[in-house]
Specification:
By secondary structure, this protein is α+β, with helices and mostly antiparallel strands. The protein has a single domain (22-256), classed as Phosphatase 2c, domain 1 (4-Layer Sandwich), CATH 3.60.40.10. The chain has six helices and ten strands; from the N terminus they run αβββααββββββαααβ. It has a five-stranded antiparallel beta sheet with strand order 1-10-9-6-7. Strands 2-3-4-5-8 form a five-stranded antiparallel beta sheet. The longest helix is centred in the N-terminal third of the chain and has 19 residues, at 78-96.
Length: 262
């Protein structure tokens, strides 16, 4: 344990400073929505250590559209947390400027590539998967970019729709072809964003929790969005996944109640 709390020069990091950094992370990230309007939002996150590399957000934009973001910085722990915090601030600011998903992904790729060029030793850490989508509450159209992230899932009347990647993870290539996609959500849909720590969680036998188990939970009869989040994490525990997890685990769920009347 002590070795995990040492900096690059071998100096021990004060545990209280790590915990303070963790509290700052908690302040950055959104909470489940206390009031449901045309949607309900739920969030649950567990990190592999004191600090994590997953980031996520839900932002109501000035034009009333809803931006949802989830990503996973390479690695986890202190270095991932530093890059994640820097990247989270960049994305959050860009979202409020109402930058569309395709353009935002291009800017994030340039942002990370700029820092990666400064060091051949640490360049790998300046990379991330990213899903960003914007939902129009009037039409329920979801425009999104999926940059190498595990595919978000839409539960619709017992069926599952996967939002496959539209480009590669960001930060590895200075020049990257980035395309956007769109899907129209419907009343009663449940949109689930998650990180790979959920589906790659392993039990003592080495079996992975897997995408199919997550889909089974998603198609189950769990009407409350917060209860659904608890059900997934309870399923991980029953499966025998490590607790605390070996990799950061994040879920962000959006229940769609219907379009906003014109």
């Amino acid at each position: 344990m002590a070795a995990r709390n040492r900096g690059r020069n071998g100096q021990r990091i004060d545990p209280s400073e790590l915990e303070l950094a963790r509290e700052v992370e908690r302040l950055l990230f959104p909470k489940s929505s206390p009031v449901c309007t045309w949607n309900c939002i739920g969030v649950k996150n567990r990190t592999a250590g004191v600090l994590g590399g997953d980031y996520f957000d839900s932002v109501t934009l000035p034009d009333s559209r809803l931006a949802v973001v989830i990503g996973d910085v390479t690695g986890h722990g202190l270095h991932a947390s530093v890059v994640m915090s820097m990247l989270y601030g960049f994305i959050h600011h860009a979202a409020f400027d109402q930058i569309e998903p395709q353009e935002l992904a291009k800017q994030v790729n340039a942002f990370l590539s700029h820092f990666a060029e400064r060091s051949l030793t640490f360049d790998l850490y300046f990379s991330t998967t990213l899903f960003m989508g914007i939902i129009d509450p009037k039409t329920l159209e979801l425009e999104y970019v999926n940059a190498g992230h595990v595919p978000p899932l839409i539960r619709r009347a017992g069926a599952i729709i996967e939002l496959a990647p539209t480009t590669n993870p960001l930060g590895y290539f200075k020049s990257l072809d980035i395309s956007a996609a769109s899907v129209r959500l419907e009343q009663g849909d449940r949109l689930l964003l998650y990180t790979d720590g959920i589906i790659e969680a392993a039990n003592p036998s080495g079996d992975r929790f897997g995408l199919e188990r997550l889909k089974e939970t998603l198609t189950g009869n769990v009407p409350d969005h917060l209860e659904f989040l608890d059900r997934v994490f309870a399923g991980l525990r029953s499966f025998g996944a490590a607790d605390p997890p070996e990799d950061d685990c994040t879920l962000l769920v959006v229940d769609i109640h219907g379009p906003v009347p014109p």
